[in-house]
Amino acid sequence: MSRSRRRNPFCGATTAPSDKPFKAAENRAARRRARIVLRITEDGDAAPCRREYGNPWHAPKDGKHRFGLDRPDLFRK
Fold it and tell me: Which portions of the sequence form the region Disordered (predicted)?
């Protein structure tokens, strides 16, 4: 793997090591809301919107940014 290089000059804009805790909490909240709505209404039409929870802009990692070819150290995996 000594010749392994990054092919695309993009990396995550982050201060967090992982999105996993954020995603777990958001999915847990969405499932809890769906259970409550289904218990109250007894029909599937009132289920919450899929995008209501888990907004990626509120995550600790928010997107990616492009870096230039002048930074060869960032092309290492």
Answer: 1-20, 54-77
